[in-house]
Amino acid sequence: MYIKTSFIECGEWGGHLEEIKIYFSDRICYASYEKYSADCNSVKINNERPIQTLVSKFVRRFGNFEQLLLRAYIHSLIDLKFSESDFGHSYMISEVKFRSQINLFVTSWSTEVATNYNKLKSALAN
Q1: Which tens digit of pLDDT belongs to each residue from 84-106?
Q2: Residues β-bridged to residue 112
Q3: 11: helix, coil or strand?
């Protein structure tokens, strides 16, 4: 599973990216996390997208608690997807891919989505 989240500190050109990849290795579930910083001054030279620089990366075991947080996060995305309007701007953009078969793409101002994402990210960081 692949989760990509982008933020808006560069306004309409986007912002920094965060990626979580959940995978199995030797029958154990792991999550790798990568956080990038966005250079908002680079949008003119980078096809109107900020240049991303990796600032943090780690791998952790992905246990039952993290699975519960992941389910809450995805559930909030699905709930929002059924009720979302066409946002011109959003606080965060979430993309979830399941083995390249199912894609979920949600733009959001939802504090519930942001809260659930931050809980998942915090659990992985500890």
Answers
A1: 655 555 556 777 877 767 677 77
A2: none
A3: helix
Which phi and psi (to 5°) does residue 30 adopt?
-130, 160
d(CA 126, CA 119): 11
Q: 104 vs 117, which has greater pLDDT?
A: 117
* 8 Å CB contact between 98 and 124: no
Q: What is the pLDDT of residues 9-41, one digit of tens each?
A: 888 888 999 999 999 999 999 999 999 999 999
d(CA 27, CA 32): 16
Residue 95 belongs to what domain range?
A: 2-125
Q: Is the pTM of this model over 0.85?
A: no
Q: In angstroms, rounded to a whole number, what is the distance separating the alpha carbons of residues 107 and 124?
A: 23
Q: How many domains does the chain have?
A: 1
Residues 6+ apart with CB under 8 A from 73: 113, 116, 117, 119, 120
One-character DSSP codes across 66-118:
HHHHHHHHHHHHHHHHHH----SS-SEEEEEEETTTEEEEEEE--HHHHHHHH
